[in-house]
Amino acid sequence: MQDFTLAPRARLAFAVLAIAGLGTASVIKLARGSDHQDTPDVELNPAADMTDVYAFPGASPGRTVLVLNSWAFITPAQTGNTYFDPNLLYQFKIDDNTDGVEDKVIQITFNGSGADQTVEVRGPVAPPVPGAMGNQVAKVAPAVTGRINTVLSSADGVQVFAGWRDDPFFIDLEQFFRILPDRKPVTGPLAQLPDAPTASAFRNPGIDYVKGFNVLSIVIELPTAQLTAGGNAKIGVWGAISR
User: Fold this and answer.
1) Which H helix or E strand runs over 161?
2) Domain check: are 63 and 112 in the same one?
3) For strand 118-125 and strand 63-74, is the pairing parallel, antiparallel, or unpaired?
4) What is the spatial order of strands in the sheet that 214-223 belongs to?
């Protein structure tokens, strides 16, 4: 994998939370969704705002790409001054037997701040604590470590990039808050929209509100065999950010 650029947008215009059949003859089952500052809590704590999770086949057979994006609406002016929170645990959770409970986790933590911030990636390993609030770091050595905004790799084929990327999601967010004004933010220009619904459907064509904004992106490409168990080609993937 030579380039972690998340463009073109059309390829990633969906949030993949579940993925099936990541073998050579891949058949992908999608669960679509996105979350951009849709509660006051994440609006006031943007580092903990997980905007999207993506999963898709890698550039070569037998490899899978996982993406976890966070911190919505980073402007170009903020990009060079916005970093991952070293007090948070970022996780990909993988269910490899279709019971809805994670069997493996990939844990990502950060050290320091600023341009010299470093990332540590552990796993896939068994979850130290399963469940939504499983915020215990596994007691294993990192598989990959190094500076952010750099393509990092391990001897067993794991490649990692953590840094700023253009937000690949598409949403007419202004119109969304006209339809569901109770979800609008409490600060900023979108907070000025009326408190009562003023629309019942999205505009056609829609306006990409997130165009030009960046996110903090964690991208991991690894051998699919590290995610599956006993030849099971069907897995579930979701993400978590916890303190």
Assistant:
1) strand 159-166
2) yes
3) unpaired
4) 50-57, 63-74, 214-223, 159-166, 152-153
